[in-house]
């Protein structure tokens, strides 16, 4: 029995882009569009009404922007199963940082290849975090430059192996890549990530990325 398609809400103030994305997603058997919105305020209403798996959220919109809409949606306990994937024309550091702080699960550029976007949506629905390579590099640079001296050590509650996994999550590795790097099974990687989410009280994998940076596990020397 095949898995149900990922339910997606599209949020962008450009009608043409929304229509284009809708055509791509509805043509793919693994995704289906269940709602659209032209600004952040409308997005909150649509997402609340449909409870999608993934929200493709533009950053810069009138009235309520994507960052604020993401913050409100991710703070809503009734939408705990909904993930937000930010889309933007820009790579500005502040957008990436603010999006993660708001609770977004990833950040991609609007010129992302359609096939890569579909993969990103499916991975985001599974709880993974997705970042365009150039954006991940900028994110690392942001934390290296902006983090105060004497970054706190990794939480003492973590085992040595969990710290290894957290460091690789922070570097943007997928579960398969982590398994290869550490010579363990993918199932074991998933178990470690579940433990990390629980011990660090993290909503999803994107928050583990933040924890890896803020604890100093990823930085100028370790990235």
UniProtKB/TrEMBL annotation:
Q: Which residues form the HTH luxR-type domain?
A: 151-216
Instruction: Tell me which Pfam families the record gives.
Output: GerE (PF00196), Response_reg (PF00072)
Residues annotated with 4-aspartylphosphate modification: 58
Any one Gene Ontology MF annotation carried by this entry is: DNA binding
Top-level taxon: Bacteria
Keyword Phosphoprotein in the entry? The reply is yes
Q: Which Gene3D superfamilies match?
A: 3.40.50.2300
InterPro entries from the UniProt entry: CheY-like_superfamily, NreC/VraR/RcsB-like_REC, Sig_transdc_resp-reg_C-effctor, Sig_transdc_resp-reg_receiver, Tscrpt_reg_LuxR_C, WalR-like
Response regulatory domain ranges (all copies) = 7-125
- Which terms are listed as keywords in the entry? DNA-binding, Phosphoprotein, Transcription, Transcription regulation
What name does this protein carry? DNA-binding response regulator
Query: Native species of this protein?
Result: Cellulomonas phragmiteti
